[in-house]
């Protein structure tokens, strides 16, 4: 052990013990809650851009993150991409992009707090790599209860999957007052808008470069991937679907949620109907 009051110098003691002298002056710095929350938001946004443009590498993702207001460097982005297993893939046609010919509806939820189940849903799509190809997961989360109310796995990235997910979720859970999404072409399509109109659902869309507007569903996607998909192997859509279904069931029925007073989403969701 190094003794600072020893007649031998600290340098000589380190030499004899074969220790690195710089280690004596190192104090571990643990990340505070703010830093952890920032990194979680950053990882969610990296996953968002990887979903929208899977062929973007770290350099181009940094540009998108800077546009979103994240003060990041390439070293940080590369570290987080490696952490969650995100790699650029070969560009494909017809990836989800904003259709500039379509009118963008306003964001209705600024400073908005949901006060009952099915008042506000968020919907989004995430990209999931496969050993041979890829799949896309459309999911819907309830703002009030944090319950994952609907999801659908598909090998196509078009409005059809989104429309199917909404229809099936409405059959099971009822009709929400508002559905929020980003400005992807699936959500600006005439068919999607017509469906919401027929159900008397108000449509809300994230503002441009407003990464936090749909953060609830993006964080759920990140948790699904880091906690369930990346640690486990899956070789077929069937195996992937089983992993997702297991995670959804555990998330809704077992996992306490801090924002819900440590209740689980299903208890909060169904308990509100019973009250």
From TrEMBL:
<dbReference type="GO" id="GO:0003676">
    <property type="term" value="F:nucleic acid binding"/>
</dbReference>
<dbReference type="Pfam" id="PF13333">
    <property type="entry name" value="rve_2"/>
</dbReference>
<protein>
    <submittedName>
        <fullName>Putative transposase</fullName>
    </submittedName>
</protein>
<dbReference type="InterPro" id="IPR012337">
    <property type="entry name" value="RNaseH-like_sf"/>
</dbReference>
<dbReference type="GO" id="GO:0015074">
    <property type="term" value="P:DNA integration"/>
</dbReference>
<dbReference type="Pfam" id="PF00665">
    <property type="entry name" value="rve"/>
</dbReference>
<feature type="domain" description="Integrase catalytic">
    <location>
        <begin position="113"/>
        <end position="273"/>
    </location>
</feature>
<dbReference type="InterPro" id="IPR036397">
    <property type="entry name" value="RNaseH_sf"/>
</dbReference>
<dbReference type="InterPro" id="IPR048020">
    <property type="entry name" value="Transpos_IS3"/>
</dbReference>
<comment type="function">
    <text>Involved in the transposition of the insertion sequence.</text>
</comment>
<dbReference type="InterPro" id="IPR025948">
    <property type="entry name" value="HTH-like_dom"/>
</dbReference>
<dbReference type="Pfam" id="PF13276">
    <property type="entry name" value="HTH_21"/>
</dbReference>
<dbReference type="InterPro" id="IPR050900">
    <property type="entry name" value="Transposase_IS3/IS150/IS904"/>
</dbReference>
<dbReference type="InterPro" id="IPR001584">
    <property type="entry name" value="Integrase_cat-core"/>
</dbReference>
